[in-house]
Amino acid sequence: MTPEALSALRARFGEQLSTAPAVLHAHAHDESGLEHMQPHAVLFVHSEDDVLDALRLSELHRFAVVPFAAGSSLEGQLVPVRGGLSLDLSRMNAVLDVQAGGFQATVQPGVTYPELNRQLRPHGLFFPVDPGAEASLGGMASTNASGTGAVRYGTMRDQVLELRVALAGGRIIRVGSRARKSSSGYDLKHLFIGAEGTLGVITQLTVKLWPLPSHLVALRCSFDTVEAAAACAVAIMTAALQLERLELLDTEGLRAVNRHEGSAYPERPTLWIELAASSPAALNETLALCRDLCLDAGALEVAAAHSPAERAELWKARHHAYYALRGLYPGHSTLSTDLCVPLQHLPGMIAFARSAIDTAGLQASLLGHVGDGNFHVLFHAPPDDAATWDRIQDVYDRMTREALALGGTCSGEHGVGLHKRRFLRLEHGEALEVMREVKALLDPQNLLNPGKILPEDSAL
Amino acid sequence: MTPEALSALRARFGEQLSTAPAVLHAHAHDESGLEHMQPHAVLFVHSEDDVLDALRLSELHRFAVVPFAAGSSLEGQLVPVRGGLSLDLSRMNAVLDVQAGGFQATVQPGVTYPELNRQLRPHGLFFPVDPGAEASLGGMASTNASGTGAVRYGTMRDQVLELRVALAGGRIIRVGSRARKSSSGYDLKHLFIGAEGTLGVITQLTVKLWPLPSHLVALRCSFDTVEAAAACAVAIMTAALQLERLELLDTEGLRAVNRHEGSAYPERPTLWIELAASSPAALNETLALCRDLCLDAGALEVAAAHSPAERAELWKARHHAYYALRGLYPGHSTLSTDLCVPLQHLPGMIAFARSAIDTAGLQASLLGHVGDGNFHVLFHAPPDDAATWDRIQDVYDRMTREALALGGTCSGEHGVGLHKRRFLRLEHGEALEVMREVKALLDPQNLLNPGKILPEDSAL
């Protein structure tokens, strides 16, 4: 960023602009911590007008703009690899409107999903996308985040009705509709969902809300092998029960959970299941059916949690698993895969992953949203152990090639960022050229979060 | 189309190309019948390679290409307003693969949804989008079609996992993924869904399948006013029952149904409802709750149909309503609106429409997928009665402005075609310019279904 650019930003934004070392440092990395690169400045925006003026100055002075809010991305999305301005939207965090009768809310991009849910409780409604961390809705839309609720409610892509998006140069558009469905014109909304801020900056979202399910039961059931647990997950999906969640943790995951939570769950591959029904009687029927399915699939025990407190206890363990697993390896860096395959291929894919990891002698744990065919392998190694990281990348590559050959995707929910760019050619083929053309159309000067998503083997 | 173009097509395609008057005539209009314009030739394609070669010749000889299959669109989408080639995909009608364990099927674009469902029955699965007519899946994706199942399963946009799309000039790309979710790269898939063949030609679809619901009950309940019926629909949606369908017909609709089916339903505004549950006991609970809701909302009678035969009888009436209503006005043309508003605004919107129609002294009937906030007003008038058509357009415009002011859309499921282009500026504002840019990017010579979706008040 030139001194002139910095002066122009300072003149327009005053104290909202910061170049304090601690602030620059806090905007130099994301949750993965795998890259560190400081922006030239951080701008705390308060309004859509602030965003538009920042984009106008960006075009005029040709500096990069990297949207930032909660900082919880996992693929390096927030890292300002070409410097420029970190556009911090975390103060645009208002819930603007809750239309309870229409099951929708309009929010600013910096609001976190736990905070939105806190404000929704009095309405008996909730927002079902729970990627973990204290993620912001703008960031969640920008990576098409999901989480444990996706098996029932879908991903961010399924929740976003309407967006306001600030484009390069300072144009503003509204995309999508507040109606539940529309066949009017080209669907631009889905271009911006999952674009990681490379095509525009989301300044407002209208999202769907859902009634809190009335009758719930949570199950925890453990298996001899991770493949058996995955096969059971597929059987449960095939039975079309009214599932709210369906999660898998491997043996190491259970070990980490027990250590982190002080619990004493059997340290075996385990499914976490949540079932819903419209009445206690219907719930009991569903529970009995699901228990039978699990036992038929080789479950060694099935524990059910009925009360809200018991269920919260059970789910806390699963929700903390990522941090619990990182905690097993202090001083190590962690790299997470995020593959997603068609459901029928999940058990085979997990067996492939387990075998590749074991053959390479790597330390890795496996957890996932298996009802969606999505799972994460967390690799742990000391940051400076180059030989191990080479082996990790090799296993990661082989797993990804297998998933793509099965019709899957290199990212189920984390996005591409810096880490998965190298898989995009293989996954998308010729369509990658069209993606490049779309980027060039909407951001001809490559100022919006440059260096993310698209591989750099050919110029934009 | 030049003689050279026709010769080149003939040389490549031989008997697959037709210029027979009856064939040209059959490709000159869609189901609405409001416009007639013949293509210069019709090409019956058998394969993706045929489509690609046709697009190469189109670019070389600069003739327009208008995709065609079942011919059931309602907004003039299939009318070759600039002549050229009608690309008939109806013979590409194979179900290529059913992955029952993965809940997905891969099909060619010309297969119709009733035929797909016929082939799915042995698997205990079904495809839930039912727009009426014998629509093809390629056409349904191209208009983002929906129907009575959308309130439970969503629209085509929610069902399509992966597409193969032939682009202008003869490039082929694969967009989307067979995984249930993906955060990998820009979402190009949704650009082609609802694009009405103006951005590319869909040559293959992989779609989601669903288990046939096991326990169902259908209800028919009638009300004094159409506003009361709509308010009841909103109350049912708010109660979050496990709905499969939620449909509305007005008094004239019931009159038409009775005449068409020989039935004797009360000729009053009526809701058609279908409920599902996982067991007979749960179904009875849901039914009792729904019946109470309807009675509290002023239902004058609630009739329940339990057996498959009774339910089929009830739904036949609703499914035939469009044709039954057209049959009330022999020799008239029919124009259908397709507004969709946020659910909480539905009763007010329907009251507005009813009042505008009555004040203008027009003949019109109202039916709709009210669980989605989507309803159709069918206007009937003799084709040559210009004064009445002017009044119809005026009422149509006022209804549309009202729906857009409420945050709704000019099309819930039929698409834009020729008829709704004039609403796009008002609905999309600045985003319309981005739509034009996307069209220019993907079809720089404006050869793919030209004259559709985008209004012509400024050049592409």
UniProtKB/TrEMBL annotation, chains A, B:
Pfam families linked: FAD-oxidase_C, FAD_binding_4
FAD-binding PCMH-type domain residues: 35-212
Cofactors, names only: FAD
Enzyme category, top tier: oxidoreductase
Entry keyword set: FAD, Flavoprotein, Oxidoreductase, Transit peptide
Domain of life, per lineage: Bacteria
Residues making up the signal peptide according to the UniProt record: none
Official protein name in the record: D-lactate dehydrogenase (cytochrome)
